[in-house]
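Quick one:
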Amino acid sequence: MRRLVLFDIDGTLLNAGGAGKRAVTQALHEVYGETGAVERYNMAGRTDPQILREVLGQAGLDEERIQAGMDAFWDVYIRVLRDTLDPSAVKALPGAAALVDRVEAADETVLGLLTGNVLEGARIKVDAAGLGFERFQVGAYGSDHGDRAQLPAIAVRRAKERTGVEFSRKQIVIIGDTPFDISCGEALGVRTIATATGTYDREALAACHPDHLFDDLADTEAVWRAITD
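Output:
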């Protein structure tokens, strides 16, 4: 059976050393003159547009003002992320590179991304970790939709456009480190693989009932069996 394998980025494939939060904070300051409680905000599993709206909404900005500055915000965010990210501080997480290699090499699998990062932010981080953004055949990003639950269907549509295959239910595999990764594909009946390499521990992830749960992705063969069985 063919598989569409969709990886989250932050906390799943890599740790960017806080680069994303630093770029968000500076962009908020430059564009809106307001950073709100961004330093205390838990970004894990949230989409970039969701982060922007929630941080600024909590600071008292209305939707009209948030929307008015959004294009400028993304321009600044990407510039700051590109200019300040130190590749030596970006680390691929245990087993991530080997698992990506295994998925990419298999004839029956399509390698993809499903992430709350906007497209260019995803590209910068994945390339900095040495994982090769262009290797991922399809993706769905925070720049596609601010609601993470909408992203699996976008990835499935793009996979069909690229391969001609209409993936469904357990043919779709989402690998992530947060409850949001586990829940976002519920409507499509996807297969979920959780890894406790981010800010959520095994207990918190187990409570969300993923199909499979690992401490990390280091055991390539075990994770591969979880993808394909």
